Amino acid sequence: xxIAILTSGGDCxxxxxxxxxxxxxxxxxxVEPYLIYDGLEGIIDGTIQKAGYADVxxxxxxxxxxxxxxxxxxFFEYAYRKQAYENLQKHGIDKLVILGGDGSFRALxxxxxxxxxxxxxxxxxxxNDIFATExxxxxxxxxxxxxxxxxAIRDTSSSFKRASVIETMGRECGYLALISxxxxxxxxxxxxxxxxxxxxxxxxxxxxxxxGRKYIMCIVAEGTKMTHQVVEWLEHEIGIETRATVLGxxxxxxxxxxxxxxxxxxxxxxxxxxxxxxxxxxxxxxxxQNSKCEFVTIEYVNSNSYKLEEELLIMAKDMMH
Length: 321
Ligand code: F6P
What we know:
Largest sheet: 7 strands, mixed
CATH topology of the largest domain: Rossmann fold
Structural class: alpha/beta
Number of strands: 11
Bound molecules: 6-O-phosphono-beta-D-fructofuranose
Helix content: 40-55%
Shape: elongated
Strand order of the largest sheet: 3-2-1-4-5-10-11
Distance between the termini: 57 Å
Number of helices: 12
């Protein structure tokens, strides 16, 4: 039996540990592992290679993905999916493990419907925005990178009695910003899911400045598109010199944390075990719920959008109102 792995969409720390564990685990189960380079584009173009231990040794600590990634438009066209199927057939591959987000899972589900190629999706995105899973690979590493950056920015902010605005990634989801604001104890947190009361925040911050507050830390999720507005508000409404830092792609790279390496191992072993079970069918996603890996259908993952936990929103309410 042959199973191939690929990485798709935005990369994240934890992908390389998952690739290594996939190859090692397949070989231990007498399954032939294959690597597909360049995401879904690679299935179309046939950049597929049989893997051995040597191909994946020394990558546990590396960020990014040695398989590279892509956001494929071509895969949504039948003719390219047919070409992709023919490429898999050449290698005798009839099962896939894909690390990525729900868009990539949807694309492979079309492929399954066309040609019956079973697959398991592993949620891997720093955005943590996939419905039905409490955790997506890469999130812990991204949060630690944001924490380090916030700690460093706080140092210089306090030296100059300034306000600092830090923009985090996450697309439409405020998870990275919310957790980062809570664990860094910032004064302001702006996320797409909650409307901030800037008048109430201004009253509070002005009074704190009068009482001796020396600096202000704000975390803004990119999905709000409000970074510039928050800087203007701090400068003109609160009257404090302000600097902004857009963290950007630094959040997507870096040495994977212990938690991401462990989660990579759990996700991959569950995925391969499921594919080896001939009684299951179709495309499934391995999700993390109540500290356990479970399987759900692609339809279920796409049936709703990810919601931030109410408990976390309550913890951060003073940073928004
Ligand atoms: O989905 C992951 C993510 O990093 C988002 O947080 C961000 O908006 C986007 O990808 C950036 O994409 P790109 O790498 O194509 O600029």
